[in-house]
Design a protein that fits this description.
By secondary structure, the protein is α/β, with parallel strands linked by helices. The chain is built from 13 helices and 8 strands. The chain is elongated.
């Protein structure tokens, strides 16, 4: 290179570079060896808790034997824990991932079908008969005496604003959503072409719930993310709950909250005037449309649910303190 020849003869670097039209960064740049891996080379053995070194090939054989066992469908995380607990290796997740990847032992990534959801087509449902459109959502209810939240799942009939049922417990799971609809189906005479609208919570997107509604002949549609206006009726109900209950009451425990919400459920359906139904009561509005409600023995769907497992565990934990 011409510049290098002159610089080696003692000419000033800056003057030489200016004359040949090069910048300092261009002159001093050196290409890297792209085929050479950077950093420390990977280890060829694995240490046990007793300090013994075991070749990685042996570790891989043990992983292969594990994955051949009946019912074992472990990914690298569970394999790591197994190697630590059963084989007593001192080994990281990163190393197990590398070994399993190199020997093609990683679990195949499961494809998620996101195209099967039916998104909301119109902003406001236009039901023609009671219970044709139902909105579903979950609200957190703070229990002051226990300093934690409970969760309340509620189903609202869009046409009459009738609260068809609610479940209040420490957590709401997909099984609870399915159970609520079983009870709704038993207690109400649902018309043809029922549509349930909900958000994209994991309890609603679960296959168990979607299959349950499909078997019942109910179409499920999902509101788009960050669009509470697409669930306006249940959101309005939650605003009422916030004003009428959450801002006024402090609950000692979930039993206290359940008793309060049952009283409110009865008031809301049978005594509270609603502007959206011409300042009528939801129960009366339904009766005017020909829906017969046995008010003497009428309880909200979900009220007869047994205490869930997570609820019992929490209560037993409190008793043990």
């Amino acid at each position: 290179m011409i510049a290098t020849n002159f610089i080696e003869q003692g000419f000033p670097v800056r003057a030489v570079l200016e004359n040949v039209g090069l910048t300092a960064s261009q002159y001093y740049y050196r290409t890297k060896e792209t085929n050479k891996k950077q950093g420390r080379p990977p280890s060829t053995s694995t240490c046990t808790e007793k300090g013994q070194r075991v070749p990685n090939g042996v570790v891989v054989q043990q992983i292969e034997e594990l994955l051949k066992c009946e019912f074992v469908d472990y990914g690298y995380v569970k394999v790591t824990y197994w190697l630590r607990k059963v084989k007593h290796y001192v080994i990281s997740f990163k190393k197990v991932y590398r070994l399993m990847s190199e020997h093609k032992l990683l679990l195949a990534r499961q494809a998620v079908n996101r195209s099967a959801r039916t998104w909301v087509k119109e902003l406001v449902p236009q039901p023609k008969v009671p219970f044709q459109n139902i909105e579903l959502d979950i609200k957190y209810i703070y229990l002051h005496g226990q300093r934690r939240n409970a969760m309340m799942l509620t189903a609202i009939d869009v046409l009459s604003r009738f609260n068809m049922g609610f479940i209040l417990q420490y957590s709401i799971k997909k099984e609870d959503v399915a159970a609520l609809f079983d009870m709704i189906n038993e207690q109400f005479s649902l018309p043809q072409g029922v549509t349930v609208r909900n958000d994209n919570g994991s309890q609603f997107t679960a296959s168990l719930v979607r299959e349950k509604l499909f078997q019942m002949g109910i179409e499920q549609e999902f509101s788009r993310p960050a669009t509470p206006e697409q669930n306006a009726h249940i959101e309005a109900y939650h605003s009422i709950v916030e004003r009428a209950i959450c801002n006024r009451y402090q609950f000692d425990d979930i039993k206290d909250a359940k008793n309060t919400f049952y009283r409110f459920w009865h008031f809301y359906n049978f005594e509270r005037l609603h502007s959206g139904i011409e300042y009528d009561w939801p129960a009366t509005y339904l009766e005017e449309l020909g829906v017969q409600l046995d008010t003497k023995e009428f309880y909200p769907c979900g009220w007869s649910l047994e205490t869930s497992a997570n609820e019992r565990d929490f209560e037993e934990g409190l008793m043990g303190q």
